[in-house]
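User: Fold this; tokens only.

Assistant: Input:
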Amino acid sequence: MRILLLNPNMSSSMTDTMAAAAMPIASKGVELVPVTATKGFAYISSRAEAQIAGAFALETIAEHETDVDAVIIAAFGDPGLKAAREQFNLPVIGMAQAAISMAAVMGESFSIVTFTPLMSRWYVDSVDDSGLNKKFTGVRTPEANKLDAFADQASMTTELLRLIHLCVAEDQADVIILGGAPLAGMASQFQSQVNALLIDPISSAVVLAESMVKLSTKSAFSNRHSRPAAKNSVGLADALADSLATP
């Protein structure tokens, strides 16, 4: 089984961090294929940026569709997820959707902790899309609008733990998702210090991707009613243009 780990953020170090967190979770015989965006933004932090990154995600999936069994869109807001699922005949999993789905079955309530308030509304949208709002207690973030989660690692670690403890004490969350690609792997580091279940989104996505491959076949995905009609295009990457033009 080969799973494309597609990072729409233009950061190879972030890709490496997520791959390192995901590989120990992958089953024996599962190959993760990490790919980093070659254009766009170093870190996606708004809906506009996600829309642009989603186009890259579609291009990349089109290039790899025939040689992988599933795709993980490795950015917490799941840029391009709905469009990719509509277009391609294979399982496509988003990190946010995977983590939210796991959280909903692991406890009665869940929170999201991330490192900047800039993504709060976008992450709330992700929960809205999942239909699991009744179990959601909200997003906790630091007050400052910092995007560089690694500028002061010790300070960030202290702040994240503080927010996690607030989720438990004040929000009564059974499960806490550490949202955002830069936080990959931190759930296992913090778990022994927290009286709640912590979820790592990239690990959740790997587990879900493997399950979807085992439960389905690629040919079954071609039967979906939402598959768009074939259409010619101008100026798109060749692989994506070919995919869009194929009935």
